Amino acid sequence: MKRFKKTFNDQQVPSDHDSGVALKNAESKWGPNPMTLGGFIVALLMVLTVVFSVAFFLGDLPSDCLWTLAEARIFRLKPSKATFSEDIPQPLTAPKDKLLGGLLPSGFDETSCLSRYESPLYSKGLQHKPSSYLIFGLRRYEALHKQCGPYTELYNRTVDLIKSGEYSSDSSVCNYVVWISYSGLGNRILTLTSAFLYALLTNRILLVDPRVNLSDLFCEPFPEVSWLLPPDFPIIDQFNSFNKKSPHSYGYMVRNNVTQNSRKPSFLYLHLSHDFDVQDKLFFCDTDQTFLHNVPWLLVKSNNYYVPALFLIPSFEQELNNLFPEKETVFHFLGRYLFHPTNSVWGLITRYYQAYLAQADEKIGIQIRLFNFGAGDFRYVLNQILACTTKENLLPQVNLNEPIVNSSGKMKTVSVLMTSLSPRYFEEIRNMYWENPTVTGEIVSVFQPSNEERQQTEKLMHDRKAWAEMYLLSLTDKLVTTAWSTFGYVAHSLGGLKPWILYKFKNGRVHDPPCFRAVSLEPCYHSPPYYDCKKKTESFNSVNIVSHVRHCEDNSLGLKLFDRKGEL
């Protein structure tokens, strides 16, 4: 496997030897004339006075600032807590660990995807350390993807199997998992991550549905060869018609005993959505994985984060333990590896961050998603949000009795980033902190980037804003999310945050307590299979199979990964 060499060299600065030579030449030029030497000293003192004056007013400048100023083409606000010296635009400097501890590959053209290596300037970086085995596995996958990716000789040979309708046991062909786009953006990000992990576990190449806005939202994650399925793929026009009743569905074939035939298909459709049948659930059984192993093309459609169920497959257990010693880090690592905002989306993110979040002492995110709620429920939802944020000391209480509160010293600034399809919650909370001082003297600013009123799946600008808002939420210090929301799952998992989750809103009352703290970074698998592969019957005892899978806090039937202390 070829390793990619770093393309970023340290800046070369003048050495002490070079400075000595320059001084020696200056001495010989001026000669021993005392008057000339005195004039030189006066001039030198004047220059130093100017330099120190500038340094005093601009604050402490880094030792390499002159090189950075000379070479920087883009100036941005330095994304850190506000100080006097940071009240002015600072030049963009290279992050110390732009490869995220080896998680990301080198060798990309940086300008084509600024977010890939600039993101550590805005985020807190990875909250956990990726295992060396995961890093090795990603480099190995990248080499395989380069060998088998679109339009390579091996890809063309494997595509021919679909065209001919014949199965081949030729070991020189590659195996693929094709992700079919389905559902909202949050669901798509979670299912794409699930498909990639399955590809890692089974030595398959992940190719993604090119018919949606994927290339406008995310940069290419793999070096040199695209992850987009070519638009001339033979059966791409059938993707929309695939469902659990399709003749090419694995569940359909099991129900009709087609899998008993000696002739294996060149491709299969896997229906892993919330409405899958018992036969579709066999995908999560070891014996069925043995059958699927030899099928060159697996086409997957899902609207669920099915990663926890992969941990229930015995043949995957050891590999998953090696990849993820900390079980709650699966999406945190794979999400940061796969999903880099394109330059157009990165512009939305960085402009908003610099304008409204960069200078705050603390950044609080609040994500609101309502499911089948009417206009009459607005006040209950608002009260639940306020009850959560004040009881958990996320936001300060307001003083309704005094027009102004005197505070000694520098007042703490808090920026609240809210995301919702409706502007009403933002307007109420913004006005509350504008019209009333806080009891403890903080200055609270409230912002909401967009209010689209309704979800507009697969509309480009809507998806760009949604992706930008998920990413902005991941950059906050503390986060409140809504139960069952995949939008919120993506935000907190990318940021490595354990959010406070608002209980699912119910008509006519505020839940008590209003919210709870998540025990894991991981998203919830809403519709797990609950199937006993040995007894060949449906079962609800999946959580007893392995120690690091439990029911979700916000969905009692769902499953999620978490870490038990002392058991890793």
UniProtKB/TrEMBL annotation:
**What does it do?**
May be involved in cell wall biosynthesis.
How the protein sits in the membrane? Single-pass type II membrane protein
Give this protein's Gene Ontology molecular function annotations: galactoside 2-alpha-L-fucosyltransferase activity
What Gene Ontology terms describe where this protein resides (cellular component)? Golgi cisterna membrane
Q: What's this protein's family per the entry?
A: Belongs to the glycosyltransferase 37 family.
Alphabetical keyword list: Cell wall biogenesis/degradation, Glycoprotein, Glycosyltransferase, Golgi apparatus, Membrane, Transferase, Transmembrane, Transmembrane helix
Q: Which InterPro entries match?
A: XG_FTase
Q: GO biological process annotations for this chain's record?
A: cell wall biogenesis; cell wall organization; xyloglucan biosynthetic process
- Does the record's keyword annotation contain Cell inner membrane? no
Q: Where in the cell is it found?
A: Golgi apparatus, Golgi stack membrane
Establish whether keyword Transferase is in the entry.
yes
Q: What is this protein called?
A: Fucosyltransferase
Taxonomy, superkingdom: Eukaryota
Q: Look up and give the organism this protein is from.
A: Capsicum annuum
Q: List residues traversing the bilayer.
A: 37-58
E.C. designation(s):
2.4.1.-
